[in-house]
Amino acid sequence: MNFLSILFNRFWGVADDIVSLNRYTGILKRNYIKKNADNSHFYHSNDFLQIIIKAIVIALWIHLSKCLTIDFFHIWIEKSDWPSLIRNVEESCLGITKVCSIQDRASTRTNATVAAAYKAKKEEWANLEDQPLEPNWVKIEKDLLSEFSIANRDIARENALLLLNYGLLYLDFNNICRKSYSGRLEKCIACMVVIYQGSY
After folding, report:
1. Distance CA 146, CA 180 (A)
2. Cα separation of 22 and 35, whole Å?
3. pTM value?
4. Local structure of residue 134 (DSSP, 8 states)
5. pLDDT tens across the length of the chain (200 residues)
6. CA angle at residue 69 from 19 to 82, to 5 degrees?
7. In the chain, which ranges are E strands?
8. Are 72 and 30 a contacting pair, CB within 8 Å?
C-alpha cells in the first residue's frame, strides 16, 4: 500500500505530461482514480497501475519492432529472436540506476558543450574593437548551462524509464506476495528500500 502511494505521488504529474498517471486516467476514462491511493481506493488504484505498466511494456516491444501499428505486431512476435530482444531491453531500459546513468552521460555532453560555447563567447568579446563593459560571465555560463541541459536531456524518456522500472518492481512485488517467493522478496525489498529512502 505504501509503495503504491509512493508511485502515485511520484508519477501523478499533470494532465499535459506525456508520462503521468494523471494523463492516463483521462485516456482510460478512470476519473475516479485519484493521486492519494488510500485504503478506500487501493484495489482500483492497484488495477489501474498494473494496466499502465503492462501497456508500457507492450508499447516498448512495438517500438522495438519498428511497427507503425499494432496490426503487424503478432507477425513480428512470431519471427523475433526473443532471447536477444530481452537482453537488448534489459541493457537499454531496465535497472533502478539506469536513469542515473543516462543523466550522467547527458551531463557530460552538456558540460562539454557549455565549456566550448563559453570559450567562444569570451573570445568573441575579447576580439571586439570597442569593448563594452565586461559581461557578467557567471550569469552567461549559468544561462548556457540552462539552455544546453534542456537540449541534451530527454525528460519524457527518463520519466518513462523510471515509471517502467518502478512499475515492474511493483508488479514483481505483487506476484511475490501472491506466490510466496522468499528469495525474490529479499531482492525486491533491497530495491524498495532505496526508493523509500529517496521519497522522503
Report:
1. 48
2. 8
3. 0.69
4. P
5. 578 888 888 888 888 888 888 888 888 888 888 877 665 678 888 888 888 888 888 777 777 666 656 677 677 777 777 777 777 777 767 776 777 788 888 888 888 888 888 888 888 888 876 666 778 888 888 888 888 887 778 888 888 888 888 888 888 888 888 877 777 777 777 777 777 766 55
6. 85
7. none
8. no
* 146-to-114, 143, 156 alpha-carbon distances in Å: 9, 5, 17
- Report CA-CA distances (Å) from 190 to 85, 136, 162, 174, 185: 27, 47, 17, 15, 9
In single-letter form, the type of residue at position 34 comes to K
Q: Residue 17 corresponds to which cell in the numbers above? A: 505530461
Place of cell 517500438: 63
**Residue 83: C-alpha distances to residues 17, 80, 93, 111, 187 (Å):** 33, 9, 15, 37, 23
Grid cell listed for 162: 523510471
